[in-house]
Amino acid sequence: MFTFGSARITTISDLDPFPLPVDLLFPGKSVETLRPLEAELAPHHVDFDSGSILLGVQSHLLQVGGLNVLIDTCVGQHKPRPRRADWHQRAATGYLENLARAGLRPEDIDIVLCTHLHADHVGWNTQLIDGRWVPTFPNARYLMGRAEFAQWRAEEEQAPGQHNHGSFVDSVMPVVEDGRAEFVDEGFSLAAGLDLVALPGHSRGQLGLCLCQQERRAIFCADAIHTPVQVYHPDWASRFCSDPERAISTRRALLEQAVARQDLLIPAHLRHFAAMQVRRDAHGNYHPVFVQ
């Protein structure tokens, strides 16, 4: 947990670490390319022995102005995900217990922000009760990007159950059918100083959240940055980006803005550290500065 002005930000972990081979996350790339950065990236972000990028799958709980905002909801529990053994039919994950340690029950969440609708960002939207998928956070407004939802609904109509590990069916539509979903666009304000920003590329309609505290800004930047590796190598697009070139341009703009405005960046999968700032050296290269 850390504070940013009057806001309190807490990481609610669901799965940590979540290792992915370097060449799986970044096609054609090798861990040896990262060897000169080993002191900066090991042990929290890269496992050089196994050649893996280390991610965290987690929510960010933002408490500000009397609101409890949960940003993304991870993998979830009891979800059928046979293509990923570490996501499949998980039980006793401790996620809701981690939320309780932050002092909240599911009923206390006011807003769930789904930055995008990939399976590792919507899983705890719902939970299995009496054989039905029901909203986990019964009093929350679930905010979803309008373009993001439209894309995945169209994909689902073309090939039911084939996308995002089936999460549209068990983690998105039950919320919509319960009347808890609200479809939003860039510029939407959750409250004063809490504005949505477009971060397209990883997915078509990915949104981030800008927390403005007077002159200071913290950007919850979702998967525009998966790992600090992409601060050192902003041209490394992930295998899971729907538009790699746009993802790269979005990331570069985000990094440049962070340098110019001294923004605090909070990527969805950053592990061990709470956030990071970005500096640029005399050669024009970006470097992360981590915040505990």
Q: How far apart, in Å, are the first and last alpha carbons?
A: 8 Å
User: Topology as H/E string?
Assistant: EEHHEEEHEHEEEHHEEEEEHHEEE
Provide the low-confidence segments as ranges: none
CATH level 1 name: Alpha Beta
**Could you tell me the mean pLDDT?**
97
Q: Which topology does CATH recognise?
A: Metallo-beta-lactamase, Chain A
Q: What does the model show?
A:
The chain has a single domain (2-291), classed as 4-Layer Sandwich (Metallo-beta-lactamase, Chain A). The strands form four sheets. Strands 1, 2, 3, 4, 5, 6, 9 and 10 form an eight-stranded mixed β-sheet that branches. It has a five-stranded mixed β-sheet with strand order 11-12-13-14-15, with no helix packed on it. A two-stranded antiparallel ribbon has the order 7-8. The mean pLDDT is 97. The protein is an alpha+beta fold and 292 residues long. A hairpin with a 2-residue loop joins strand 1 and strand 2. The protein has helices at residues 22-25, 38-41, 95-101, 119-122, 146-158, 167-177, 229-232, 244-261; strands spanning 2-4, 7-21, 46-47, 52-64, 67-71, 111-114, 126-129, 132-135, 141-145, 181-184, 189-191, 194-198, 207-213, 216-222, 264-267, 275-280, 286-291.
